[in-house]
Amino acid sequence: MQEYIGYACFVIIGLTLGLIGGGGSALAMPVLLYLLHYGLNDAKSYSLFIVGITALIGGISFLKRGDISIEAMYLFAIPSVIAVFCTRKFVEPALPETFFTIGDFAASKQFVLMTLFGIIILISSLGMIRKKKNPRRKDLMWGEFYRSPIHIPFIIVLGIAVGFLTGIFGVGGGFIIIPVLVIFLRVPMKKAIGTSLGIIAINSLIGFTSGFCRQTIDWKFLLIVSLLSVAGIFIGSYLSKFISGKKLKPAFGWFILLVGIFIINYELFLKPKQ
Question: Among 41, 174, 206, 267, which residue's Cβ finds the most Cβ atoms within 10 Å?
């Protein structure tokens, strides 16, 4: 039964990517780990491939509609890709299987990484859910920041940070890319969705190819779930035409908030004892 639920979730992953431009990999990792019972390393690689292929196909449909900011994608993606490659190639393989022990408790790599992942998701979700209290002043502040000399270096640093997260956690990073595009680059929400898909596709596929040589890949499984996810993204891309960006932003925030709560709750309380 869990297996069928897991397969159904990949349709939802694609739907989420097409509708809100992110959140797919935030759901892919828990599904692969907790429902389909893959190991952490396999789950990270499979998540990167599934989300990368799905985002690539979905991004093409947004590109045809002109809903991609090429300038924002280049500015963000180039430093991000470099960070993904370096992290997957050098940093991720060097992480210990057990980070620390306290009495009988051993903090495994999965426990540390997934708990941190859940916390990062929670923080990111708050910025999308929170309503503006003083929009005029806030617009002025971001307008000044947008024209300031530190604007581009700041975006490059954020791109590197997302690349590191993609490499270390095996996620596309849409839950961070979307807020960065909307808040810091001032990209309209619907265009941010298409731009995010382009960045996710590049990051995820680079991340996958940087690490897949270290493991055996179940290509049959990957192709099946990727097709399910692609079907979902076509549905999500179609529905995004009829839903306003103002509604998508808080919906995205609430979605990843729930995913973050589940991940932390599972790792701390629900995960079976080894």
Answer: 174
